[in-house]
Amino acid sequence: MNQPNIGHLIDSTSAVERDAIHMAVAPVLAGERLPRGSHVVISDSGKAMLWRPNSSIEAERHAVQVGIVDPFLDTPAVFKGERFWLLLYPGTITSLRHDWSHPAFNKQWVGAASASEEWLRSFAMNDADLPYEEMMQAARNFIEHDSYLCEGEKWDGFSLPDEFWDHYTAVTGLLPKDRWSFFSCSCD
Q1: Helix axis angle, 110-122 relative to 132-145, nearest 10°?
Q2: C-alpha–C-alpha distance, residues 95 and 93, integer Å
Q3: Cα–Cα 20 to 30 A to 153, which of 7, 9, 121, 129?
Q4: Parallel, antiparallel, or unpaired for β 67-69 and 47-50?
Q5: Which domains does the chain carry?
Q6: Is 135 within 8 Å of 128 (Cβ atoms)?
Q7: 81-136, pLDDT tens digit by residue?
Q8: Residues 6+ apart with CB under 8 A from 177
Q9: How far apart are CA 93 and CA 87, in angstroms?
Q10: What pTM does this model have?
Q11: C-alpha–C-alpha distance, residues 181 and 188, integer Å
């Protein structure tokens, strides 16, 4: 008997009963406005971009579609810089353990996140003189609660490099509304 797959019509010869499926998903960053359910490719920077089959852009003409923007979103589109679930096409992943691999992510996105984590760990240890976890929590507190890390005069004159937030977003998926420093002195 034929078992229908997601992405194919169910014909009369298929043994069809209610079922549940596993679907590979990945949290990705939108590189542009993406309507829900639209087909996307992953750019070299790891961002989701619309699939444009007749594009004159060389990189996109050779790019492979990897999946669709979450069709269950309660908004009509994802905007550039927002994170969303990308549903990968059925039958395209190369392993499955609820921790899957896919060629488009192995070579691009995963490497970018690990390189950013390495940058952040180095910054925490060498520049901020803080444990990595403490610095990451302080950044999260800044994003979610507008709170600053204060330790007397320790942060007097300390500046946060602009690329900090790019690396932070690559690792956590969180986007700050302001790219200011969350380090603050308690000077009068």
Answers
A1: 100
A2: 6
A3: 121
A4: unpaired
A5: 1-91 (2.40.300), 108-184 (no CATH)
A6: yes
A7: 888 999 999 888 877 666 666 666 654 444 556 778 888 989 998 888 889 889 99
A8: 143
A9: 11
A10: 0.50
A11: 18
